[in-house]
Amino acid sequence: MRIEPGELVMFVGPSGCGKTTTMKMINRIIEPTSGSIRINGDDVLSLDGNELRRHIGYVIQQIGLFPHFTIADNIAVVPKLLGWSKQRTAERVDELLRTVQLDPAVFADRFPRQLSGGQQQRVGVARALAADPPVMLMDEPFGATDPITREKLQAEFLRLQADIGKTIIFVTHDFEEAIRMGDRIAVLSERSQIEQFDTPANVLAAPANDYVTSFIGQGAALKRLALIPVNGARFGPADASAPSITISPDDSLREALDLLVLTGAPRINVADGERAVGSLDLAAISAVLGAEVPAPQGTGERS
User: Fold this and answer.
1) Would 8-192 and 224-289 be classified into the same CATH topology?
2) What angle is formed at CA 141 by the lines to CA 139 and CA 144, rounded to 5 degrees?
3) d(Cα 23, Cα 58) in Å, to the nearest integer?
4) What would you report as the CA-atom Rg of the chain, rounded to the nearest whole angstrom?
5) What is the structure's pLDDT at 154?
6) Per its UniProt entry, what is the enzyme's top EC class, as one word (predicted)?
């Protein structure tokens, strides 16, 4: 498996398939017994383990904040280990709190117990980013949150990743989360085999084998529509008789389908701001799903 710089790769598979074990081998919490893992060409086994881990961000589901440390002190742990000056560390803490949308003046001196679960999770991400690591490992970081908080955290993290462009390996049990967040998805089987390693769209459109198909489950077409923007469909002319509710070209075709079902209208208008740019009906959405799909990317190595 080759992961490109700035790529967010999702590991997804059943319990016990080796997702977390594989991730922990990257920072040598678990030592690889064979093969090689390289970061920027360097075999991780050739590097000092402690030094390696200080340059790899690590976020876990339980968050793992030190309860007797303030939020600022939690974020500052790794910079202090690396010998950063007090001023540089303080500036970095303030910068990261703002990055994860927590006001330093309000949150820096609080303790973890004074924050909500979602806020603690954001601090966990900030702490992992503290030393500006090139690689981040995230082990079901949103798994313990409620569905509403989880969706907000996913959206915030995608916004953050668009700015910071880290190379991230993200472990999840949730295939929907993998589809929403990943640049590519590695689907692992119970045999710890990579059954498919490809983009979310290609995994949904062209599963490599029956196992991947079964793992995707029902509703693959709807999942695909959530990945395709409205402007990926061919518009008809704007329809003055269509409902006043419109869809944006940047919304997903899944949202457009929901709107068609909810309104019961034969078509809905697509509006860019105040200007109608066309209309969309079920046939146009179906045509997108029926378009030619690529051959599946199968198992084994990828370079």
Assistant:
1) no
2) 120
3) 10
4) 22
5) 84
6) translocase
The chain-wide mean pLDDT, for the chain, equals 87
Assigned fold of 8-192: Rossmann fold (3.40.50)
Strand partners, 39: 42
* Over residues 226-239, mean pLDDT: 89
- Domain positions in the chain: 8-192, 224-289
d(CA 138, CA 21): 12
Looking at the chain, list the stretches that DSSP marks H as alpha helix, in order from N- to C-terminal side. Answer: 19-26, 49-54, 71-75, 77-81, 86-99, 104-107, 117-128, 147-164, 175-181, 200-205, 210-216, 220-225, 253-263, 282-289
Helix axes 253-263, 282-289, angle to 10 degrees: 150
Separation of CA 50 from chain center: 27
Q: For residue 204, how many C-alpha atoms fall within 13 Å in the half-sphere facing its CB?
A: 23
pLDDT at 273 (0 to 100)? 84
Buried b (16+ CB within 10 A) or exposed e, 187-207: bbbeeeebbbbbbbbbbbbeb
Q: Map tokens 């690396």 to a residue.
A: 82
Q: Which CATH number is 224-289's, of 3.40.718.10, 3.10.580.10, 1.20.1250.20, 2.30.30.110?
A: 3.10.580.10
Q: Vertex 119, ends 26 and 171: CA angle to 5°?
A: 25
